[in-house]
Amino acid sequence: MLTLQFVPYSEIEYISSVGRIRKLLNIAKENRIVLLEGRLRKEEETELIKATMEEINKDFKGIELSVIYPNKKESDLFKRLKRNFVNMLLGDRQGLTIIGPASIVREIKKDPDKIQLLTEEDSKPRKRRKS
Amino acid sequence: MANIFEKFIKAFFKNLFRRKKHIKLGLYGPPNSGKTTLANKICEDWLGESMGKVTNIPHETREIQIKEQISIKSGKKEISFNLVDTPGIATKIDYEDFMKFGLDARKAKKRAKEATKGVIDAIRWLDNMDAVVVVLDATKDPYSQVNITIIGNLEARKIPVLVVANKIDLKKSKIKKVQSAFPQYHVVGISARYGTNVDEFYEALFKVVG
Q1: Which of B133, B197, B128, B190 is nearest to B160 (CA)?
Q2: Domain hosting residue A60, numbered range
Q3: Do A65 and B145 touch (CB under 8 A)?
Q4: How many CB atoms lie within 10 A of CB A54?
C-alpha cells in the first residue's frame, strides 16, 4: 500500500532550512511519499541530497525526488516581477515537490508537465497462476 | 612620466590577475554519464596521460580527483585550468545494485559507503568551482531532478555552465531532448569515448572559461 502525505507550504514556511529538510526526510524514512506544496530553495535541494546520503544504511536506500513547476514564460514584465516579489516574500508556493523513499519509488518520470511514479512493485515480475 | 607609470600599474595588475587565474573547472553530473571518460579525453589530448579509471559499474569515481594546470590552445587563444573530476551525484545508493555487476556483498557495501561520501564531497566542492561542465548521458532522461538541481545550484551561484550531452555514438541518444530540457545553455553533443565532436567541445569551453 502506498501512503501519500501532503505537506502544505504553511507547515514549513517558518522553519529553518535544516528543519525543513529534516521534516521532509523523516516522512520519507517512514516509507511515505511526500507531496509538498511549492518547492524548496535550490540550495535546500542539494542539502536534502547531502542529508539523504548521510542517512543511507541497510534499511534506507535514499530518495526519489522530483519537482513539477509551472514553466510558462510570462511575457508580461509586471506579472513576472509580481511573481518574483511574492516568491521572495512568502516562499515559492508554486508547483509541487514529490519525495519518495527509494525502497518504494523506483523512478519518477517527468515529461515535463506529466509525472509518473514507477514503484518497486511495478518492476517485480508477476507470478502466473496455474490453472 | 605619469602616463608611463599609469601603464605600468595597469600592466602589473593585469599580469597579477592573469597569473592568479588558476581556474577550477569541475565535471559534474549523474553517475555513469561519462565524466571520467571526458576527463581522460581532455588529459590525453593536452597532457598525454589519463586521469581516472573507467568501468560500467556506477560510482566508479568515489573521490574528488584533480589534474592541475591543463592548458588548451586554439589558434591564438589559450586557457589554463585545474580539472576537477567529481563523483556522480545521486539521490539513492543501494549496495544490491552493485551486486548485479558481480561484486560480492562486502565489496558492494564498501562501495556504497564510499559512494555516499563521494556525493557529499561533490556537493561541498560546488562552491570552489569557477566554471562547470555538466556531463549528461544523452541516452537518459534529461529531466531527472538531479540534473535540474545541479544546474539550478550552479545558476544560483553564478558559476558559468557548459552542458555536454555525452554518448552520442549510441543510437538511443537524443541531443535535442537535452537541448529542450536546458534551452538557456549551450549544449554540445559529444562521444568522449570515441572523441567525436571534441573540437566543438573545446571551442565551447573557450567561450565559457575564457
Answers
A1: B133
A2: 4-123
A3: yes
A4: 13
